[in-house]
Amino acid sequence: IREDPRQVSVYIADYIISRIKAFNPTPEQPFVLGVPTGSSPELIYKILVQRHRAGEISFKNVVTFNMDEYVGLPRDHPESYHSFMYKHFFSHVDIPPQNINILNGMATDLSAECASFEARIARYGGIELFLGGVGPDGHIAFNEPGSSLTSRTRVKTLAYDTILANSRFFGGDTDKVPRMAMTVGIQTIMDSREVVIVATGAHKAFAVQKGLEDGINHMWTLSALQLHQHPLVVCDRDATLEL
Ligand code: GLP
């Protein structure tokens, strides 16, 4: 628990940097990082970019897998997760373009796209550290309430709560928010060797309480991490109000 979103972000950015450095990645054995979008990670990316510019960390031997992407948004749509990642992170660091993996929301065969994403993760020997946020309804990635806890990358229909929450990025118009997304599954996240979740703000407090203090269940998919061997949830004070 840290005081505010800034301290949470500094903590997580420093943590990721220390993990990458300890791993000492090479082109043959890169550090495989799972990455999220959303407002919560924005400041984390900003700090990582600052640290990179200060010469403290290189992402040359880092491979990324994004958690999710909207179905039906072209890559260059301003609200695609592809655009988000380049705007906030990839364009400002030295990660080689071939090391970046983001689901293609315009793929003609969505199931094949999801299967090939899982296969690419497997080819790299799995994900070392998965960074994620949490939705106000307790979802991780786009694993909405009711998702199977053994799910893998697939297409999900978004819950109305999520459409409402994410409409702020679409001029407040829920009709403009895509209805479907592709997302890594709970099992994909569980298979990573370490999971770090960022939760800030009072609107996340209920999800944090349900996910950490209630039993494991598929309605609050954050709760699956209770079974993970190496989870870390970093909250600000506001996000702990219901604990
Ligand atoms: C979206 C993303 C999630 C993210 C969540 C919370 O639904 N698919 O990966 O964790 O939003 O986002 P925010 O950090 O903006 O609250």
Describe the structure.
- By secondary structure, this protein is of the alpha/beta class.
- The protein has helices at residues 5-23, 42-53, 81-88, 110-123, 160-166, 186-190, 205-213, and strands at residues 31-35, 62-66, 68-70, 100-101, 129-132, 154-157, 180-183, 195-199, 231-235.
- The chain has a 6-stranded parallel beta sheet with strand order 4-2-1-5-8-9, covered by helices on one side.
- Helix 1 crosses helix 2 (42-53).
- Bound molecules: 2-amino-2-deoxy-6-O-phosphono-alpha-D-glucopyranose.
- 2-amino-2-deoxy-6-O-phosphono-alpha-D-glucopyranose (GLP) is lined by residues 36-40, 67-68, 133-135, 141-142, 162, 166.
- Its EC number is 3.5.99.6.
- Residues 4-215 form the Glucosamine/galactosamine-6-phosphate isomerase domain.
- One of its GO terms (biological process) is N-acetylneuraminate catabolic process.
- This is Glucosamine-6-phosphate isomerase.
Short descriptors:
243 residues; alpha/beta; six-stranded parallel β-sheet; 30% helix; binds 2-amino-2-deoxy-6-O-phosphono-alpha-D-glucopyranose
